[in-house]
């Protein structure tokens, strides 16, 4: 290559990278908005159910039995979004993954029916969980209404991955708006009627919302399948059942292990000083933190979708740095200004003592948005390299470190449970992030070598897998 051509290539690469940051942002922001909107569902649901008869019973039935059980049943399909984004590169891959999604969704729906409509429910809820007797029957009705939940989640997450893979992430955000609209409509109808049990209103809203979103995704994905997925050149690595299971089982186990952290944390906080206050503040401060972390969580699918593109390594790293700084500064502004008082005292309506506790605890959570961005970057690299065991290992490390710190807090019995819980969350998330970084380094080096080759030769190197 001549010196002039080499210079032109370098100039071209700079232009690509400059315009590419906008491309990364265009892929990211609809997904971030989608996560934020999903986070608005629970406050809206709680606000309506709290204004219907017997709010304590129905909120407890939904939050203590129905929603956790529905999540555990659907856990094997939660990571279909990441898997589809990473693997749905051509028609053959799509059809094989769709077959898995349909069979798994059907099997889990059958499991849901068995749990909700047979005496197994009484064994699990009454004997194993040991919930108060007054919420058993309302929760049974709610779980029965949630029957469409798992299959709808499987279908829409799988096809959302296809949309993200082929650069249609805005449609994913639009689908979340559709879901939230259907959800709010059902909540408002239930509130206007005023004579329906809160658990019925809540579960109808959730079931209708995810079903409507699945229908919407089915409609909008059709032209993408026809005009983009079918003509896509076949991938050099064909998907077999064995290769898919090797890729996906660690991800499914990751979802299940992540869900186990919730009851562990609740049990620990209830055994430390200021237990009631800590448990009361935990969902409020977690909701605020989630609004900031969700923008980082959404970056995972962006990384998976864009790593195949030449010149992506620097773009993705630069965007991760910008996103990390932005989210950290925004949360710092909330913690260090009267905005925290507005959120906890005015919007969340916490009593003065709980609001003060939440404001003090928020400082401990400052690293979490940055860690979420870094986790998404490193996890996206691992998914790109199809080395998903590293993701499972990181979650196992998170659980072990989190449990160890919480047990230590209980044993010491000297520190407020909320502070111990947040410190444990931050430290275990840091340990998980470090492990993801370690496991992603070889993939990152390969991608950097690929992009360096492009800069040097102006060619189009093969995708690193």
In short:
The chain has helices at residues 3-39, 41-49, 55-78, 80-87, 91-117, 120-129, 136-145, 149-165, 169-193, 198-229, 241-269, 275-297, 299-306, 312-336, 339-347, 352-362, 368-384, 389-412, 417-457. By secondary structure, it is mainly alpha-helical. The protein starts with a helix and ends in an 8-residue tail after the last helix.
Descriptive tags:
disordered C terminus; 465 residues
User: What fraction of the residues are assigned to beta strands by DSSP?
Assistant: under 5%
Q: What structural class is derived from the secondary structure elements?
A: mainly alpha
Supply the number of helical segments: 19
**Fraction of residues in helices?**
over 70%
Low-confidence residue ranges: 1-19, 460-465
Instruction: Kindly report the average pLDDT value.
Output: 84
Rg estimate, integer Å: 23 Å
Total beta strand runs: 0
The total number of structural domains is: 2
Strands, helices and their partners?
Blueprint: H1 3-39, H2 41-49, H3 55-78, H4 80-87, H5 91-117, H6 120-129, H7 136-145, H8 149-165, H9 169-193, H10 198-229, H11 241-269, H12 275-297, H13 299-306, H14 312-336, H15 339-347, H16 352-362, H17 368-384, H18 389-412, H19 417-457
Helix pairs in contact: 1-9, 1-12, 1-13, 1-14, 2-9, 2-10, 3-5, 3-7, 3-8, 3-10, 3-11, 4-8, 4-13, 5-7, 5-8, 7-10, 8-10, 9-10, 11-18, 12-14, 12-16, 12-17, 13-17, 14-17, 15-16, 17-19, 18-19
């Amino acid at each position: 290559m001549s010196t002039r051509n080499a210079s032109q290539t370098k100039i071209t690469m700079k232009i690509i990278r400059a315009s590419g940051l906008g491309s990364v942002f265009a892929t990211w922001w609809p997904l971030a908005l989608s996560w934020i909107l999903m986070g608005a569902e629970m406050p809206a649901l709680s606000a309506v159910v709290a204004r219907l008869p017997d709010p304590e019973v129905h909120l407890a039935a939904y939050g203590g039995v129905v929603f956790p059980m529905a999540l555990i049943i659907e856990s094997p399909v939660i990571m279909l979004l990441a898997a589809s984004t990473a693997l749905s590169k051509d028609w053959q891959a799509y059809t094989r993954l769709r077959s898995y999604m349909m069979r798994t969704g059907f099997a889990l729906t059958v499991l849901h029916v068995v749990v909700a409509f047979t005496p197994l429910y009484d064994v699990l809820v009454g004997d194993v969980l040991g919930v108060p007797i007054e919420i058993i029957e309302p929760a049974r009705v709610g779980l029965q209404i949630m029957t469409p939940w798992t299959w709808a989640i499987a279908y829409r997450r799988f096809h959302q991955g296809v949309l993200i893979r082929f650069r249609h992430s805005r449609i994913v955000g639009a689908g979340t708006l559709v879901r939230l609209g259907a959800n709010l409509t059902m909540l408002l109808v239930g509130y206007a009627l005023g004579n329906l049990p809160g658990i019925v209103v809540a579960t109808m809203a959730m079931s209708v919302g995810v079903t409507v979103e699945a229908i919407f995704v089915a409609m909008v994905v059709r032209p993408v399948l026809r005009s983009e997925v079918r003509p896509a050149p076949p991938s050099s690595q064909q998907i077999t059942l064995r290769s898919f299971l090797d890729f996906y089982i660690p991800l499914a186990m990751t979802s299940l292990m992540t869900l186990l952290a919730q009851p562990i944390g609740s049990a620990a906080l209830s055994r430390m000083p200021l237990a009631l206050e800590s448990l009361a503040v935990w969902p409020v401060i977690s909701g605020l933190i989630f609004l900031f972390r969700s923008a980082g969580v959404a970056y995972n699918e962006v990384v998976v979708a864009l790593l195949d593109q030449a010149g992506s390594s620097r773009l993705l790293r630069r965007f991760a740095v910008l996103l990390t700084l932005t989210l950290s500064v925004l949360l710092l502004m909330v913690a260090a200004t009267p905005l925290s008082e507005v959120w906890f005292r005015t919007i969340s309506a916490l009593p003065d003592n709980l609001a003060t506790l939440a404001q003090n605890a928020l400082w401990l959570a400052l690293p979490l948005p940055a860690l979420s961005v870094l986790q998404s970057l490193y996890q996206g690299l691992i998914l790109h390299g199809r080395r998903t065991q590293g993701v499972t290992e990181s979650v196992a490390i998170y659980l072990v470190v989190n449990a160890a710190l919480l047990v230590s807090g209980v044993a010491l019995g000297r520190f407020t449970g909320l502070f111990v819980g947040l410190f444990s969350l931050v430290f275990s998330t840091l340990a998980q992030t470090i492990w993801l970084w370690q496991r992603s380094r070889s993939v990152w080096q390969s991608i950097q070598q690929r992009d360096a080759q492009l800069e040097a030769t102006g060619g189009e190197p093969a995708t690193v897998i």
